[in-house]
Design a protein that fits this description.
66% helix, mainly alpha, 2 domains, 7 helices, two-stranded antiparallel sheet, 2 strands, flat
Amino acid sequence: MLSLSSKKALTNYLGIVVSLGVFSFTPLTFAQSTTETQNNEGLEENIVTPINQTESLLSIDGGQKLMREAEEAINAGNYDLASTKLQQARRVFNQLSNFYLQLAESFAGIDPRLAEGQRSGALRTAALRDESTYQLALVHRAQNKPELAVPLLIQIIRSQNPTSELGRKSYQQLYEIGFVETPFQTGANN
């Protein structure tokens, strides 16, 4: 039987999974990570083990797995499946980035070491989100749907900066689509 705190954690986790649009989660998987034992007084207590980062969808590994599945779909010419997998990966990385950022803000002024570690996690997952967004934009181009690629490419430029590698590649895609007329050359005089 789950304790009240375990039930709340399960409800929160289910809410996250539902917001990610992934419904392959089963409560049994979560319940297996909570073990009931008896302490010296014979009372039951819960011992919670950390989420297995390689099996959880809400992890960098989970998002990268979705990106690998998308790549396999692209190689097989199944752009619809690739699009779905990349959208899921984007949501996972975006959620992770937001969660890390929220934790960083919570620890700011309390523990700079923890705040900086969470800020690094937010940046790392935001970069992965932008990479999956770029791949999704390329899939939309391959599907001859440039109108879906344009907003994604603009999001990347805003997130990454136009002078970053991914920012330059995104602008180049906008130029090739015909959305912008002027090519971007780094170091050019304005």
